[in-house]
Amino acid sequence: MSVKNIKTICCIGAGYVGGPTMSVIADKCPHLTINVVDLNEERINLWNSDDLSKIPIFEPGLQEIIERVRNKNLFFTTEIKNTIKNSDMIFISVNTPTKTKGIGAGKASDISWVEACTRQVAKYAVGDTIVVEKSTIPVRTAEAIKAILENSKRDNKEKCSFSVLSNPEFLAEGTAIKDLQNPDRILIGGEDASSIQSLKDIYLNWVKEEKIITTNLWSSELSKLTANAFLAQRISSINAMSALCEVTGANVQEVKEAIGLDTRIGSKFLSAGPGFGGSCFKKDILNLTYLCEYFGLPEVASYWEQVISINEWQKYRIYKLVINKLFGNVNKKKIAILGFSFKADTNDTRESPAIFICKQLLNEGAILKIHDPKVDEAQIAFELGELGKENSLNWSFSHNLGNIFDNVEAIVLLTEWEVYKTINWDLVNDKIMTPAWLFDTRRIVNPDKIKNCDFKFWQVGLGNDI
Ligand code: NAD
Ligand code: UDX
Fold it and tell me: What is the pLDDT of residue 465?
C-alpha cells in the first residue's frame, strides 16, 4: 500500500474507548470525517442525545468536545455497511471480555466481537483499507484478523486490499480526555510502513513525533498486556504492604512517599486502596496468564496470577475487617457506602471493589445506603444481581448525601470522589449511631477533620483507631 491520505475513518464500538478516542481525534483533526458505529442502538441514541448530560459515558471534558464536533465531523450511527464501505481506515474498538465457556474459560479473552466485526469489514470494505486494532487483544490476534480479511466472501467484486495495524489504547477512565490529548506515547505496530505512516500522520496533528513509537505487530499487542500487568502489579504490591503497615505501626502513606522518591520506582500508582477494579486489569492479566500457559510457561503464569490473588484478598480482608469491627455482626445494621464506581470521575462500575464488598455485607444481613455521584441505581441493581434482587429492601441508593448517614453504624468509603473530601464530619457525627465506625479505604479523610467526632476511624495502610 502507498501512504494513504486518510479522509474518512470508521470506529466499530462506541464504548469507553471508541467514544472518547474518536471524539478527541475529531476535535484535533477537523479535516477528517469520523463515524462511530455500534450495534447497540440504545447506546448510539444516547451518544446522539440533545441533552449532553445523557451521553452514555461520563468523562471530564468529554461533553464539551462532543458539543464542538458532533454532527460536524463526528457521527454516531448504527449503519455499519455503508460506513465501512466509505472508510479509508477502520478502528476496531469492541469489547474483549474474559471467556465464560469452552477452552480457556475464566482466563482467555473472548475475541468473538473482534472476529464478528472483522467479518463485516471483510464483507463491505472497498479498495485499500487500513484496519487498526484498538481493542486489547491476545498477542497474535492480528494473524486471525488478517486471515479473516483475506479469505472471507465479499459483498462487492472489486479488488480489495487490507493492512492490519496494532494501536493499543492506554487511556485510563476518569482522565481519558487528558490522556488522549497528551499521551505519554502512541504505539503503532505493523508490517506495512506506508500504513503505519498513514496512522502516524493522524496523530501528528497533535502529538510530537518523538512520542510516536513503532514496533512489529506482536510487540505492540504484547506491550499493552504488559503495561496493564505492570500497573496492576504496583497496586497489588502497595496493597500487600498496606496490610503489613496496619499490623506493624508503619504508615503506608509515609512508606509510599519514601519509596516514590526513588526515581527508579517513581511516585505514581502507589496508592493503597480497596483493590483495583475496572474492566481492564483483571481481564488482561487473566489473558496474559492464559497465554503464558498456552505457550508452555506455567511459572510466568503463576507469577502474574499472584497480582490478582492479592487483589481479591484485599477486597476480602476489608470486608472481614468491617464485620469484625462491628462485633462480628452486621445483621440489620445500617451501613453507608460512599462510592460505587471503580474509581473517581467515571460512571463505570465494571469490577468495582464496591460490588464484592456490598454483596458480602448484604449477605451478612446489613442494610446498605449507597451513594455515588454518577452511577445510577439501575447499574447498581445490575451489579448486585440476584443478591440485590433477593435483598431489594436491604439496599437503597441516592445521588445526594442528604440523609445517607442517618442512623448508620458504619460508613465505608470506597471511591475517592472529590465530594467525599469536603464532607463536614462534625455534622455527620450528629446523625449516626454510637458506637459507629468510619472505614476509609482510599485515605482521603483528613484525620484532623474528625478529631471531635465520636466514631472510630480506620484507614487502609494505617489501620489504627485514632
Ligand atoms: P465497551 O464494552 O464499553 O464498548 C464496546 C462496544 O463495542 C459496545 O458498545 C458494543 O456494543 C460494541 N460492539 C461489539 N461488537 C460489535 C460489532 N460487531 N459491531 C458494532 N459494535 C460492536 O468496551 P470498552 O471499555 O470501550 O473497551 C473496548 C476495548 O478497549 C476492549 O478490548 C478493552 O480491553 C480495551 N481498552 C479499554 C480501556 C478502558 O479504559 N475501558 C482502556 C484501554 C483499552
Ligand atoms: C487502566 C490503565 O491505567 C490504562 O492505561 C488502560 O488503558 C486501561 O486500564 P483504568 O482501569 O481506566 O485504566 O483506571 P486506572 O487509573 O488504571 O485504575 C484502575 C484501578 O486501580 C482503579 O480501581 C483505581 O482506583 C485503582 N488504583 C489506581 C489504585 O488502587 N491505586 C493507584 O495508585 C492507582
Answer: 55
